[in-house]
Amino acid sequence: MSFFRIWTLIAVFVLSACGFHLRGMGGVNRPLPYAAWQITQTQELEEYLHDELKRHSVTVVRSGNAADAAEIHLIKLERSRDVGSLSRIGTVSEYILTLKVEAEVRFQGEIKGEPIRVTLQRKQSYLDNDLFGKQQEEQALWDDMYQDAAVQIVRRLPYIQANQ
Fold this sequence. Notes:
Helix content is 31%, strand content 35%. It starts with a helix and ends in an 8-residue tail after the last helix. It is of the alpha/beta class. It has a five-stranded mixed beta sheet with strand order 2-1-3-4-5, with helices on one face. It has a single domain (3-159), classed as Lipoprotein like domain (Double Stranded RNA Binding Domain, 2-Layer Sandwich), CATH 3.30.160.150. The model has no long low-confidence stretch (mean pLDDT 84).
């Protein structure tokens, strides 16, 4: 074996021994407490939550009132765009985008567990001469934050006690 192959093999063993894993490849893979889910009051997050629940192989009820479906109900969704830093001449050079989501799980009208709270932040550099590109970048950051919020909400669902 060559020197490069030996060191590559050692690096792979060291990384696997310390618990390193790629995003989405590790962690707890517990089943969700209910087989059917309904998403309500989540206009911005609905598609993202729907897609994330489908990845967990559960039934997602889009409309109607299914008696055997648990409900993810959005309590609060706040978006803010704050000044992160200023340049030497006093113009904005960076914004901080913040997304705060609070959701609860209901089953047959009864709230299950504590509300799920997710807070996400992203930084966006800003230049006045590239306004159109920055608007597209900001929208991409919001979309990424919605996706991340949906992943975090669904990741916490297995810890809701179904018989609580």
